[in-house]
Amino acid sequence: MTMDSPSAVEIELIRELRQTLSRLEAALSQISDGLVITNRNGQILWCNSAFTRLIDQPRLAILGETIYDLVPRDAEGCSILNPSAVRASGAKGGTSKALICRNPVQALAIEWRQVFQEQERPVIFCFRDVSMRLSIQELKLEAEQSERRRQQTESLNEQLLHEQQALAAKVVECPVTGLPNRRGLALRMNIALAELKSQPGQLTILFCDLNRFKETNDLHGHQVGDELLIEVARRLQSSLRRNDTLSRLGGDEFVIVTTNITNQSDAILLAERLQVALGEPWTVDNQTIHPSMSIGITMTMDAQISTEELLRRADLAMYDAKTKKNHHISIYETSIDARVKQEIFQRRQLQEAIQEQTMQLVFQPIVNLKDGSIHAVEGLLRLRRDDPNAMPPTKFIPIAEQTGLILPLGKWVITAAMHEIRRRVKVGQESIISINVSPIQLKERGFSQWILQRADTMNIDPAWLALEVTETILIEQPELTTGELRLLRKAGIKVYLDDFGTGYSSMSWLARLPIDAIKIDKSFTAGFLFDARKEKVIRSMISLAQELGLEVICEGIETEQQRQGLLTMGSTLGQGFLFGHPEPGRAP
Amino acid sequence: MAISIAELRTGSAPFILVDSFGLVISINEVFEQVYGWSEDNLRGRPLSRILPGAFQMSHQLGFSRFQTTEQSTILGHPLRLKTICKDGTEINSSHFIVAEKDGDRWIFGATLTPIDGEPDLTSPPNPG
Question: Interface pTM (ipTM) of the complex?
Fold first, then answer.
């Protein structure tokens, strides 16, 4: 079948209609409201440019798609158009409002109307951006709804937390080792105390804490750490009697409850037996670990004592055992309470000083013994400015080293010394500033790099800085520490070997160490005038150092006779009260 | 250089020729074989006959716009659309449309090559 060609009139009419359509569509494309025509099922037949911008899709891609799937969701993730509501609204149409974004606020007013005059009942939708027109009332309402939803979530979370806690309260076993956990331990201790009431006896608690467990975790990972804990549990259990209780308190802490011991020496024997059992080498990742632990013991016949108090005492004793050099076992006694409290107080004082930056560097000159001219100054750390009662370095340095606070403290000292170097260079009073470096700092990875970067950032010449290290660390870990020091020396930083003569003082080592000078300990300076043997030792040290091309600085010079004597023996540099006390403020 | 209607017509793809009012002038044999329409079925009929309902409004508006402005963004590159077969089924096809002046009137030639699978409408050009 063919069709006749349109007549001239029809052609004219078609042209006019097409022009009209074209202009109308161009006009509809100009308006800012999104307009859409769909069929009765919501399939898109036409839309203007504002709508394609709203949904961020090209027109051709959405023709035939369902509008309900395309429109953005509201800020809660819910649909902003309900197909049933649109259908039910009939000829009069409907409106709705939706907040599609909270920040920045973006709100839409949506209108729709079915064209009932047409048999196919298309639907016309209009989307208007009313973000700027949201009334305070509406925003308030939205905020209230949000708050209500937040409260509901919070309440639900709280409920879940309670349920979780209730569930956890029922768990009395450590999931890693299968031993009783803190709760299981408390139950066992309560039973033991109740038994003491009915039948007098002795209850003994051994609080065991693995030494350097964190290192194992850090080096080998938590899985290996967990395996070690399981092995520890097995070894400890094998050394106990059937009715003793071994529990894991958490982390690397194990607690043993026993009623089989009647005196302190037996308790110590048990602790030693446990240490021996634990100390057997344990191999992981082709590396052998030698586990060890510190044990605090407390014993009681008092049935009224609380489990918390017993654990506290055992914990304090363990803390005391940790500070012991060899035999890491300690039995609780009241004096430990005071000692540990003092240590905790001191540790807090140190932490506060670091946090509040109340530390201060004081400076003592290192002089040329011939003419008294200043060769260098030693920067010495004081904890609190102008406070005579502040802890002395002999106290706080060991605490800082035990607690790891030496690292931030050490960095502060280095930075403060560099500030002083910069100040002195600025006023034309350049001199080397030496500072003490802890073995722990030297062992820290990237230590030398950190110093050099710091010097670079602060724009100071590293040659004005000297580090004082003790020989122990150089001899105990030569590869690590000498490597770091060589890097620093290469950059111009000087290295002084501090307290020379008090440690190993192996002469053969001296030639191999990357150092620039030795500092002869004040104990030699103090006695050499009256002690011929000391005089000989000091003379040999000076002579040897000079042969090796090292400078010699004698510490603790307090009298003119000492200065003269050392000068006669060939020493050229010295430090001590004769030339100046450590002075606060500017370097001398 | 732009492809001409003559080049499209002599190719092996289904081809359709439409006048400036959107009425079908002719189709080739391949078109008949692929879509099932005979030339008699379509000659003198609106092109919208072979387009799905959801595309018809846009098609009419596109034609109107072109008549008024002689500007279009759908010409000279493939468009992935659907084509209605004689039996009412829809086939995904690649439409390549070109327009040429025939005297003072425009004529439109298009190849409608069937595509396997669903149409990829994620980044088609805007028709208008």
Answer: 0.82
| Cβ-based neighbour number of residue A92 at 10 Å | 8
Q: What pLDDT was estimated at residue A375? A: 93
Check if the beta carbon of residue A520 is closer than 8 Å to that of residue A545.
Answer: no
Which residue range(s) make up the domain with B55? 5-114
Longest CA pairwise span in chain A (Å): 137
Phi, psi (degrees; rounded to nearest 5) at A294 = -105, 140
CATH number at residue B100: 3.30.450.20
The pair of structure tokens assigned to A1 is 């079948």
Q: Is residue B128 part of a domain?
A: no
pLDDT of residue A52: 92
Q: What is the pLDDT of residues A219-275, one digit of tens each?
A: 788 888 888 899 999 999 999 988 899 999 888 999 999 998 989 999 999 999 999
Work out the burial of residue A182: count CB atoms within 10 Å of its CB; fewer than 13 is exposed, 13-18 middle, 19 or more buried: middle
CA atoms within 13 A on the CB side of A200: 2
Q: Chain A to chain B, count of Cβ pairs less than 8 Å apart? A: 81
Chain A residue with minimal CA distance to B26?
Answer: A2
What pLDDT score does A1 carry?
A: 44
Any idea what DSSP says for residue A7?
A: P
> Which residue positions in chain A have pLDDT lower than 50?
1-2, 587-588
Instruction: From chain A, pick out residues whose CB is under 8 angstroms from the CB of B54.
Output: 39, 43-45, 63-64
Report CB contact under 8 Å: B58, A25: no
User: What's the structural domain count of chain B?
Assistant: 1
Exposed, middle or buried, A66 (CB in 10 Å: 0-12/13-18/19+)?
Answer: middle
Report if residue B63 sits inside a domain: yes
CA angle A105, A107, A113 (to 5 degrees): 175
Tokens of A227: 């395996």
* A1/B contact by beta carbon, under 8 A: yes
pLDDT for the residue numbered A553: 95
B84 assigned to some structural domain: yes
**Closest chain B residue to A13 measured between Cα atoms?**
B21
Q: pLDDT tens for residues B17-76? A: 999 888 999 999 999 999 999 999 999 999 999 999 889 888 888 888 888 888 888 888
Residues of A in contact with B53 (CB under 8 A): 39, 45
Mutate to test the interface with B, among A7, A25, A56 (most CBs of B within 10 A): A25
The C-alpha atoms of residue A565 and residue A552 are separated, in whole angstroms, by 14
| Residues B54, A64: C-beta atoms closer than 8 Å | yes
Contacts of A5 in chain B (CB under 8 A): 44
Contact between A201 and A258 under an 8 Å Cβ cutoff? The reply is no
Closest Cα in chain B to A3: B44
When CB atoms are compared, the residue of B69, B122, B127 closest to A59 is B127
